[in-house]
Design goal:
- The protein is of the alpha+beta class and about 375 residues long.
- Among the domains are: about 100 residues, Urease metallochaperone UreE, N-terminal domain (HSP40/DNAj peptide-binding domain, Sandwich), CATH 2.60.260.20; about 35 residues, no CATH class; about 70 residues, Urease metallochaperone UreE, N-terminal domain (HSP40/DNAj peptide-binding domain), CATH 2.60.260.20; about 35 residues, no CATH class.
- Helix content is about 25%, strand content about 25%.
- The chain is built from nine helices and 15 strands.
- The strands form six sheets. It has a four-stranded mixed sheet. A three-stranded mixed sheet has the order 1-9-8. A two-stranded antiparallel sheet has the order 2-7.
- Strand 10 and strand 11 form a beta hairpin.
- The longest helix has 17 residues.
- The radius of gyration is 34 Å and the shape is elongated.
- It starts with 6 loop residues before the first helix and ends with a helix.
Length: about 375
Amino acid sequence: MANKRDYYEVLGVDKKASADDIKRAYRKKAKECHPDLHPGDKQAEERFKELNEANEVLSDPDKRARYDQFGFNDPMQGGNPFGEGGFDFSGMGDIFDTFFGGMGGASRRSSNAPVRGNDLRYDLKLTFEEAADGCEKSFDFYRYENCDTCHGSGAKPGTQPVTCPSCNGQGQIRTTNGFMSMLRTCSNCGGTGKVIKERCPDCAGSGRLRRKRTATIRVPAGIDNGQTLIQGSQGEPGKNGGPNGDLYVTVSVRPHKLFRRDGYNLLLDFPISFTQAALGAEVDIPTLHGSTKYKIPEGTQNDAEFRIRGQGIQMLRSASKGDLVVRIRVEIPKRLNEKQKELLRQFDETVTGREYEGKKNFFEKLKDAFN
């Protein structure tokens, strides 16, 4: 506990900050330190976890009130006054409220309290070039929204939900057995505190309908497969005036026919002939944006690698780029006519052995191994 930072400090807000202030602060900082935008950065991952923990507490009115009163020693939030390995009080709020009627325990959230909407997820497919260069993409997705006919009430137009007669609008029913008092969710209203006598004909009383929406997102240059972009407030609407959820867009990048990605570098296998490898040659190396001239040195060996600076992937939030790493693949001809074979034999007869360093070294080592 001693190493934890104050939740208000983590979000960068004042203790008198409103719910909207906390929401805005969380979204801003979440975009700054999201792990998907900082691959391999352990500090960013820890900051994001710390941020989520702070937001989970401060965005919930009940948890925030207990945090303001108890700090990190709140037994209802899993605080452990008995030290590490001692008894865990997390989740005890409902038990206190059940057996002691809320006396000394956590107060229960009203059935009509604002509830944040559900987050949504979407898999966005990109070409290799779109991910490397960045792009703007529009796509359709579905979400549940308030019914236009009943405006989310679930009741037939001209009528209104009425207070549940079983729980008097509390959403819960208390039963007493001797000195014990227990709360249970009202079965008549399902905990909402309201009963719909005449259901909306369009949504059948649910208050929501599934609708198709279109989102437009700016994909930053350099994004990689599996990384996620957050579209704030594009998720499902909240209930009882609660805020919308968010839309999480996860990127799926199609493989390229020529290039492979290694971080911000591009990898390319480039074939050359035996003659080009032996004599050297100037070749056109393909890049993501055309081609570039490159001088293959004389005597280049198979699997040799050359690095072309600045021809890789653009780094996120930076003008810098990785490199293009070219691996040479020397091709040996498979079908030769008799004239070509004879010429190669004549060539081989003129070779003294010094031209084949690998072969020379191998036989020297072989000789030493058996002497």
